[in-house]
Specification:
The chain has about 200 residues and is mainly α. Helix content is about 60%, strand content about 0%. The protein has a two-stranded parallel ribbon with strand order 1-2. Helix 1 runs parallel beside helix 4, helix 2 packs antiparallel against helix 4 and helix 2 packs across helix 5. It is globular. The protein starts with a helix and ends with a helix.
Length: about 200
């Protein structure tokens, strides 16, 4: 619980820093869609998600290095069976490095203010969903093409049990490309859906 509260405070400070930078006019954030276009707004949201997923994958994988795990990520793994409370249980240094992405991206990529809000909402909802501990989809979902590319509760629960696989945030792309995708995942996913239906 203390880790979750501490993470909330640190993420809040990050949001305050971004808000202050916006008021100073020192970011690439913009408020009028006409400044770019609706197409760019949608593209920038998807692109930012992909950049964030990439950043998170390599950061998260680094956190599991024996030299870093104890001081940067062990608190999150105190929960072997994740719950929604686990979604925000981060060690302080981990929060700082995760928040650094959000602070940095507003200086690197022109983003509408609503895209930043959508990123924060997506990150929060996705994190809670990934830590539910049970699947919400029907037993047919593993056969759908989308299920191969998105991380959900079963995917992330395997990470909490095995530690050496499934490092992504939203997508399975990096895990699949770099050999950190658990080969038993499809069977585990199908089994989890069968148990929940």
């Amino acid at each position: 619980m203390e880790l979750s509260v501490g993470a909330a405070v640190l993420f809040g400070l990050c949001a305050a820093a971004i808000t202050n930078a916006v008021s100073l006019g020192s970011t690439l954030l913009y408020q009028s869609v006409n400044q770019h276009s609706w197409g760019y707004l949608v593209f920038s949201y998807v692109f930012a998600l992909m950049i964030q997923d990439t950043y998170f994958y390599f950061l998260h994988r680094g956190f599991h290095h024996p030299w870093l795990f104890k001081c940067m990520h062990q608190g999150h793994h105190l929960s072997g069976d994740p719950t929604p409370w686990t979604a925000f249980a981060f060690d302080p240094l981990e929060v700082v490095l995760q928040a650094a992405f959000l602070v940095a991206i507003v200086y690197i990529l022109p983003l509408h203010i609503s895209v930043v809000m959508a990123l924060l909402i997506t990150m929060t909802i996705w994190s809670v969903w990934n830590h539910l501990g049970f699947e919400l989809f029907s037993a047919d979902f593993p056969r759908h093409w989308l299920s191969r590319w998105f991380i959900g509760p079963t995917h992330h629960a395997i990470h909490h049990r095995k530690y050496r696989c499934h490092f992504g945030l939203y997508f399975t792309i990096w895990d699949r490309l770099l050999g950190t995708h658990d080969p038993t995942y499809d069977d585990d996913f199908a089994g989890a859906l069968d148990r929940s239906s």
